[in-house]
Amino acid sequence: MSGGQDYFRPLVQIGPARPDNAMVLAGGWGWFTHLEVLARGRQPAVIPLKEVPCEVLKRLCAPRGVIGGLGMEIPRVMGILNATPDSFSDGGLHAAPPDAIAAGIAMRDAGADILDIGGESTRPGAETVADNEEIRRVVPVIEGLREAGVKSLISVDTRKAAVAEAA
After folding, report:
1. Which pLDDT tens digit goes with each residue over 71-124?
2. Mean pLDDT score of the chain, rounded to an integer?
3. Rounded distance, CA 12 to CA 89, Å?
4. DSSP string, 13-62
5. What's the rounded Cα separation, in Å, for the pair 131 and 51?
6. Does residue 3 carry a pLDDT above 70?
7. Nearest residue to 134 via CA among 83, 79, 78, 80
8. Please, what is the end-to-end C-alpha distance for the chain in angstroms?
9. Which long-range contacts (CB under 8 A, 24 or more apart) does 60-68 make?
10. Cα-based distances in Å from 112 to 21, 23, 75
């Protein structure tokens, strides 16, 4: 397809009914036989593999690299840990560091490969939290998880450079 920038989105499936002509997405467990093509000012279109440029298929099918020591050839589980008093998902259950640390340990024990720690609510209407307050919320949780022997990959859910650096 031509006329501007085309964006290709594989219509991914999983399961045992995989056709012989299916391509594997990113070297993983999902496969696809069709892609949706998106472009500004044009209706989306669904196309079969034979109409997809070779360089696009090559990029889509190439195995993904290791991230933080984790291979992406199998599904990974990320535990979301909101260390905020106004969390929209848990109502503030993990606002106190000991509660957040215990929840993180439980997530690790339940099989989470990655723990994502957040210190600012993103619910609609939530107040912006100052950098130092967000740092005060997330850093003790990360330190406590490491002190408790949690070896899971830890990420920090923030939009602030100072918080990311402190974490």
Report:
1. 888 889 999 999 998 887 787 889 999 999 999 999 999 999 999 999 998 888
2. 93
3. 28
4. B-SS---TT-EEGGGSS-EESEEEEEETTEEEEEEEGGGS-HHHHHHHHS
5. 49
6. no
7. 83
8. 44
9. 60/8, 60/10, 60/23, 60/25, 60/26, 61/23, 61/24, 61/25, 61/26, 61/27, 62/26, 62/27, 63/26, 63/27, 63/28, 64/26, 64/27, 64/28, 67/153, 68/114, 68/153
10. 34, 28, 11
**Residues 112 and 79 sit within 8 Å (Cβ to Cβ):** yes
Distinct helix (H) and strand (E) counts, the chain: 4, 8
pLDDT digits (tens, 9 = 90+) for 35-58: 999 999 999 999 999 999 999 999
Residues facing residue 3 across a β-bridge: none
Residue found by looking up tokens 């036989």 in the block: 33
